[in-house]
Fold:
Amino acid sequence: MSFEDNKPKIEDQQVEEALRNFRASVHVWSDNEFARPRQPQSRSQSAWRHLLQIVTGPVTSWSLAALLLVSGVTVPVALHHQQQLAAAQQAAVREQQRMAAVASEQQLASAISDEELLRHVDSDIARATPDAMEPLASMMSDSTSK
Structure:
């Protein structure tokens, strides 16, 4: 038998020894945990209520309850009021935009009507020759044709 043949047997023995030690320490730990005295826990009151009574007195707990009630009512009312203000501001902005659009349309319409009026006046007033100059204009047209 060589040294290499003994090597696996030695490793197996070491593993078995480590497992025995581990098993023994688990049993000792388990026995200690079961032997430890335990205090019964009262389940008649919730943990939060018990903590609140320890930290504060009954008057303070009633004060906190009232504060929670008041804040539970006022916070939603304030949020609703803020939403209404925001909606009113948005409506005002939309109305201003609408009024600006209407004003620009009216200015455009009045600009078009001014241009049309000027063209009409221009066509009524503008003539090729004034009335006083017509005899001379007719003589010139006769001379150019000859």
In short: The chain has a mean pLDDT of 80.
